[in-house]
Amino acid sequence: MATLNVKNFSDRLYKKLQVRARRERRSVAQEVTLLLSAALETPGPLSILELRGLGKEYWQGIDAAVHVQNERDSWP
What's the whole-model pTM score? Predict the structure, then answer.
């Protein structure tokens, strides 16, 4: 595994990182790895069915793929 050294890392930011790591019951190194992974990973496809609020109840019981295909088919 690689080792990463960060120079000129502000004390204020490091303290926030420590607090966050402690809250999540992780080491600072684990927290940094998790944060960097989350920031650099390619996000997966989103689904309208995973919406929180914003009309999610409208889509209950509706197959999103069929709905989209019907919308596409309705255009000339």
Answer: 0.56
CA distance 9 to 1: 22
Which of helix, strand or coil describes residue 8?
coil
Residues 6+ apart with CB under 8 A from 56: 49
Digit-by-digit pLDDT tens for the chain (76 residues) are 889 999 999 999 999 999 999 999 999 999 999 999 999 998 777 776 676 766 767 777 888 888 888 888 888 7
Interatomic CA distance for residues 76 and 70, integer angstroms: 12
Q: How far apart are CA 69 and CA 60, in angstroms?
A: 17
Residue spans of alpha helices (H) in 1-76: 11-23, 28-40, 64-73
Q: What is the phi/psi pair of residue 4, to 5°?
A: -120, 125
